[in-house]
């Protein structure tokens, strides 16, 4: 097992520092500092791979600290936290001073964790590349191709592996497609029901791309009125409208060189769609109230819980914008189509709760896992998280059993069990005939869930491809 990456956390507010620790302590070896001077001293005495610092500190700003870190320890991957989107100094530092990522407060625990994981991966890749460069200098010319191949392999490692799923999950295909398109600088559209994890997949796509060391910014297009959305994305000049007391740097400019994720893109108005289309066509933005445009280099990843093609047919979404956004499109299957993922996702969410509530003994019992797997989850992962939080509130101890589940989840599990018993009771014949009927049903269910990928179905069932083919022929399922 490889050793954990070392991360230095810097914040003068003790509660903020403790929150950072709780989020990262299970995945990294942590060092903490409550001032810039203390952080610099730790960097001199310890092997630090990633530094995460707050911007506002009394003795030295986070930007100033990271500039010092870059001068003395250039190999350390640098992350800054700030609650101010208009801070031009921070934006300049991100774009010019080599800061790996800029996270807005309040940060989300999962976003912070993924960002630091990406930073640790970048540090490791930098070390691997240095070793490869040494190998190139000391090796014969004919090894050049082999080393270049190794370098490509190292760069291909990305956050897709951190997307929680079971072996043979339908989500594997989505991750494989996103992994393939990551190296191509084209727009990606992620479709899927609300709560399936589209933002996590977009973030993983960013870290798999050559833009991984540039910003990844997120905007929910359904969360604000059109004028505010335009200002938030493209920026505005002072005095452009009532309340515009200072210049505002838009998210497209903040994401320059990186990736912008536009969630719920299907909820935007026709007027805004026309402005976004111009940005994609011309590669430039015009801040509200500005007399001239600004060039930006941004990869756009968009997401929607609606079928954009249907909105186009209904005349509610521009066809030309649709084709711009969907140069490469994937659809994320809902949770009900990947029941094997549910216990693993529940365990991951429970792990977050263990850290957040400082209850390391929390355990999801087997009967609760079975009931969760049988429910259809119309709200997907978001609803699953709410269900687990409900169980935490009702639990007297750390054991979370099925009795803590909400009535609709328990009822769904009971109905599924009744249906299964009815199926078994309805099978006629001797034991051999009944077992064959049950085997046929299992084969058909597995193949349907694996979208008739016989290799994956055979792996899940513990069969060889020849053995699976024989059974399919026998039951007329070929």
Can you walk through the features of this model?
This protein is α/β, with parallel strands linked by helices and 478 residues long. The protein has four domains: 6-142, Response regulator (Rossmann fold, 3-Layer(aba) Sandwich), CATH 3.40.50; 159-333, P-loop containing nucleotide triphosphate hydrolases (Rossmann fold); 335-425, Helicase, Ruva Protein, domain 3; 427-478, Homeodomain-like (Arc Repressor Mutant, subunit A, Orthogonal Bundle), CATH 1.10.10. It contains 20 helices and 14 strands. The protein has helices at 14-24, 36-45, 62-72, 88-96, 109-138, 144-156, 171-181, 198-208, 226-234, 251-254, 270-282, 308-313, 319-325, 341-357, 366-374, 380-394, 407-426, 431-449, 454-461, 465-475, and strands at residues 6-10, 29-33, 50-54, 77-82, 101-104, 188-191, 216-220, 259-263, 284-285, 294-295, 299-304, 328-331, 363-364, 399-400. The strands form four sheets. Strands 2-1-3-4-5 form a five-stranded parallel beta sheet, with helices on both faces. It has a five-stranded parallel beta sheet with strand order 7-8-11-6-12. Helix 14 (341-357) packs across helix 15 and helix 19 (454-461) packs across helix 20 (465-475). The longest helix has 30 residues, at 109-138. It is globular, with a radius of gyration of 26 Å. The model is unreliable at 134-144 and 149-158 (pLDDT under 50). Residues 6-120 form the Response regulatory domain. This is Sigma-54 dependent transcriptional regulator. Residues 164-393 form the Sigma-54 factor interaction domain. Keywords: ATP-binding, DNA-binding, Nucleotide-binding, Phosphoprotein, Transcription, Transcription regulation. The modification 4-aspartylphosphate is found at residue 54.
